[in-house]
Design a protein that fits this description.
It is an enzyme of class 3 (hydrolase). The protein is mostly beta strands. The protein is built from five helices and 13 strands. It has a single domain, classed as SOS response associated peptidase-like (hypothetical protein yedk fold), CATH 3.90.1680.10. The chain is globular and about 50 Å long.
Length: 226
């Protein structure tokens, strides 16, 4: 599962790395992005890479209420092509969620220790996801909402000691094909859903339980402890 992540990078760095021309929103560094919050997502629109803040927790187009999105923050890669909530988006609305770290919780007896996964240079990487559009009301506002989910897969050897699942991370050579809404070869797409091959990709730090609360969103969330 992937239930919290960070995007501390400045927007201009994200645009440059992901080859997106412009963005019409502002972004401040985030240390604890949580479900139902907005986060930048990259997808194709009008034949170009577009970046926009979408709501985390995919709301299927057929949903009666937005609350279903809180249960759709992740999509299991093994079933994503067939599950009713995700199969239409998997076919045509694939996306990338830029991140520069994510959290998992390691069971230690009766407690859970939050751990922070990030690169040594804190460079952003691409979490593979799906996006969807839903027409309805959220917090008194009725409009067409765009939301997203992050695909997960089995953990690789490096991360398995912490958790048995990890987010699907795609390399730059895979981005064009993943984002292409005209590409519908299910076999090739499914073949991309694999645990990260690089077992030395991340640095993993035990961090404070401050991250347990979505209300905490400061640099203290990522400071190693012990």
């Amino acid at each position: 599962m992937c239930g919290r992540y960070t995007l501390r990078s400045r927007l201009n760095r994200i645009l440059d790395q992901f080859a997106v021309e412009t963005a019409d929103f502002e972004w401040t560094p985030r240390y604890n992005i949580a479900p139902t919050q907005n986060a930048p997502v990259i997808y194709m629109e009008g034949g170009e890479r577009t970046i926009a803040p979408l709501r985390w927790g995919l709301i299927p187009s057929w949903a009666k209420e937005a609350s279903i999105g809180a249960r759709m923050i992740n999509a299991r890669g093994e079933t994503v092509a067939e599950k009713p909530a995700f199969r239409a988006a998997f076919k045509r609305r694939r996306c990338l969620a830029p991140a520069d770290g994510y959290y998992e919780w390691k069971k230690e007896g009766t407690k859970k220790q939050p751990c922070f996964f990030h690169l040594a240079d804190d460079q952003p990487f691409a979490l593979a996801g799906l996006w969807e559009e839903w027409n309805g009301e959220i917090k008194g506002e009725t409009k067409r909402w765009r939301s997203f989910t992050i695909i997960t897969t089995d953990a690789n050897p490096q991360t398995a000691a912490i958790h048995d699942r990890m987010p699907l991370i795609l390399g730059e050579s895979q981005w064009d094909l993943w984002l292409d809404p005209e590409f519908e070869d299910k076999t090739q797409l499914q073949a991309m859903i694999q645990p990260l091959a690089d077992d030395d990709f991340f640095e993993i730090d035990a961090v404070s339980t401050q991250v347990n609360s979505p209300k905490n969103d400061s640099a203290e969330c990522v400071v190693p402890i012990g």
